[in-house]
Specification:
The complex is a heterodimer of chains A (224) and B (227). Chain A has one domain. By secondary structure, chain A is an all-alpha fold. The longest helix of chain A has 38 residues. Chain A is built from seven helices and no strands. Chain B is mainly alpha-helical. Chain B has one domain. Helix content of chain B is 84%, strand content 0%. In chain B, helix 5 packs across helix 6, helix 6 packs antiparallel against helix 7 and helix 6 runs parallel beside helix 8. The chains are: A mainly alpha (224), B mainly alpha (227). The interface between A and B is medium-sized, with 25 and 26 residues.
């Protein structure tokens, strides 16, 4: 766990995200019908999901570690990762909705991708409710770890598999090609990949900060 | 082989217990019949509704919602009814996999029976508009299997977390929504009598969800069990 106290990757994260502000907003983009300049939202919408996914993966890892060892720190790490992931989930939904307003015409058009993202959001909100419903600490840690592991594959099916099988307006589903296929030219890649990496690091950074606050709170409670 | 033996014994025990009291079965059956009857009366307040264009859609959706709530009620009981000392006794004689498997198989049996009966009662009250009855029947069976696998796992989690009713609903609905969406799509195409081979993809996704849920249940139940 030494990694979370080091500085270098936080510097990289800040530099990458700041650089995408410049490259993303100023560099030329291919002019496509319907999309026009909103294509630049790609640098902000997709990285939110990437950030969410990376902290969710980490939280599943710590849930498994908790079930194997029973150490309280793992439980704290896992819950804080989910909390951070939920923030990025919300941001991903909001950026997607704004983008949808300007390209599909409405904030919420009942598209399969939007609907299943909303269901997955409920799934993780249920996790928070489940956690609050149990008072006993060890039991809470165990049950929420189990639910977290249970929810993760379902979230993957909901967001990344099911919409691909039906007709959706969202790129990458129902026969629509994803951006990666041929719209994403080399100029866009310069801004896109650093954004993905940078926002993932930012998400992990927020999660580690919250985890460290929780550790301090825990220590203080124990002394009393 | 030991696992299969244990599962079979536990399954037999579940069936015998249910046969003696017939509480869950009769209770849920009564629930389904009264819901269908209430729906029948409410819809007959609007004369000529069964001739209108939306009738088929309402018919299908209403059926699945009734089955959904009936199965929540039927399966939520599966872990709560066990007393603490009896759970401890199971713990000493059987493996956790055998317990979750036997519960799931028992719930599948219970739900299949219930939903077939519910379908018959439903067909008595609301006139039949099914184009492909056999396929609709298969969809109902698939639906009861999927509901059983999902709700058994969720009720195991919810029973450990104390207050049951709300938590069961909150935890299970996000998981069950994709299942019920696929089921409604499948049964709608069965009602319209659409070519069966077009629905194989949906059946595949349903089976995939079932496999994922069963696999995670088998992996995770030993941890819920140990208290």
């Amino acid at each position: 766990m030494k990694f979370i106290y080091q500085t270098w990757w936080k510097v990289i994260a800040v530099v990458l995200v700041l650089s995408t502000l410049i490259t993303g907003l100023l560099f030329p983009v291919p002019s496509l019908p319907v999309l026009h300049e909103t294509i630049r939202n790609l640098y902000f919408h997709v990285p939110m999901w990437m950030g969410m996914l990376s902290v969710f993966v980490i939280s599943v890892f710590f849930s498994i570690m908790y079930l194997r060892t029973g150490k309280e720190e793992y439980d704290l790490a896992s819950i804080e990762c989910v909390n951070t992931g939920l923030v990025f989930f919300t941001l991903g939904l909001i950026t997607g909705m704004i983008w949808a307003k300007f390209t599909w015409g409405e904030f919420w058009s009942g598209d399969p991708k939007q609907n299943s993202a909303a269901i997955a959001y409920l799934l993780y909100c249920a996790y928070v409710v489940l956690r609050n419903s149990i008072d006993e600490e060890q039991k809470r840690a165990k049950i929420s770890a189990i639910y977290n592991i249970f929810a993760f594959p379902i979230m993957l099916v909901l967001i990344f598999i099911l919409p691909r099988m039906t007709d959706s307006l969202h790129p990458g589903s129902g026969g629509n090609p994803a951006f990666g296929k041929y719209d994403l030219d080399n100029g866009m890649k310069i801004a896109f990949y650093p954004a993905m990496l940078g926002w993932s690091f930012i998400a992990i950074w927020i999660a580690t900060l919250r985890y460290r606050i929780r550790l301090i709170e825990n220590k203080r409670n124990n002394l009393n | 082989m030991k696992l299969i033996d244990q599962t079979w014994e536990l399954f037999k025990k579940e069936v015998v217990l249910e046969w003696r009291s017939k509480y869950a079965f009769n209770g849920v059956l009564l629930y389904v019949v009264s819901t269908v009857f209430v729906c029948y009366i409410s819809f007959s307040l609007t004369p000529g509704f069964d001739k209108s264009t939306g009738y088929k859609v309402v018919w299908n959706v209403l059926f699945w919602i009734i089955i959904l709530f009936a199965s929540v009620n039927a399966i939520a009981k599966s872990f709560v009814q066990e007393s603490k000392s009896r759970l401890l006794y199971y713990y000493s004689i059987a493996s956790p996999h055998a317990i979750i498997l036997s519960k799931t198989i028992y719930n599948i049996l219970l739900m299949s029976l219930l939903s077939i009966l519910a379908l018959i009662v439903y067909l008595v009250f609301f006139n039949n508009t099914i184009g492909d009855p056999l396929f609709y029947f298969i969809t109902v069976l698939l639906g009861s299997i999927s509901f059983s696998t999902v709700f058994t796992m969720i009720s195991a989690i919810a029973s450990k977390a104390g207050n049951n009713g709300t938590l069961m609903a909150i935890l299970s609905f996000p998981v069950i929504i994709p299942v019920i969406l696929i089921l409604i799509r499948l049964s709608k195409s069965a009602m319209d009598g659409i070519e069966r081979s077009l629905s194989y993809g949906n059946i595949g996704v349903l089976c995939l969800i079932n496999v994922i849920v069963m696999a995670t249940a088998l992996l995770l139940f030993p941890y819920i069990w140990r208290d």
